[in-house]
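Weekly structure sync, notes
Attendees: PL (lead), two postdocs, one rotation student
Agenda item 3: pending single-chain targets
PL asked that the sequence for the first pending target be pasted directly into the notes so everyone works from the same version. It is reproduced below exactly as submitted, 132 residues in total.
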Amino acid sequence: MPGGQPAGVRVRPRIRRPDPLIRMGPWAPVAGAVVGLALGMVVVLLLAPAVTSFAERLSLVFVVLGLALLGAGGTLLADEVRMLRRGAQAVEARSSSAGVIAGLLNGLTPARLLITASAFTLLLSAYVTTRG
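Predicted structure, written out during the meeting:
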């Protein structure tokens, strides 16, 4: 038999596993930010008739910015959680690289940075409203 294959046996092609760092695609944080921005614009449209002072208008700007950051950070955090779960499942198979994965996921990641910045921006929005 040519190729060393028995007659009548089909060779299955290997299915390529997706790269764990590219789960949602590179545009997922942008899409999350656009959803947050749209939600912020809905808030602005609902509260626009009641806004009278500069401090309240500034507060609405901070709300829109905070929601956009929260949308981008939320998609990145979902991908990070998926990587963490996959890393925990594959620790037995790749014990040598488990420390590298744990080091990456335990530090300050872009998702955590964006969510922290979003929380600060939303807090600043509330502060500007109460001070104005």
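Discussion points:
- Residues 20 and 83 are 6 Å apart (CA to CA).
- The chain has a mean pLDDT of 80.
Action: rotation student to compare against the earlier draft before next sync.
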